[in-house]
Amino acid sequence: MKRSILLTASLLSVLALPVAAHAQAGDAQSSPTASTRPQRISPDQQPRFRQYVIQRQHPSYVYSSPLVIGGVLPEAGVTYYEVPREYGPTAYRYTIINDKPVLVDPSTRTIVQVIEE
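Above: the chain's sequence. Below: its structure in token form.
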């Protein structure tokens, strides 16, 4: 009797492993948290960041399409610069488009933030 109970418990444990592993993998693949997602420039940091960019005097790229979040910049001609750590950790880069600082995802060239005055 004890042997059949032990065998049943062992069998149930083995069968439950793939379900538990799948649940954990699903959690890991869920949407990124704030700590893993690249960060934008916070509203309180934007005026200071804008001044930082202006002081660098990088050339502005003339972009004929509307400057909107989600827009994709051309492959050639746009220069990207690293965002200093003092504005928060981010994998994004910035560039100047039509005289405005713009945060861009460098892997896709997608505009993620336009720094307004």
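The mean pLDDT is 80.
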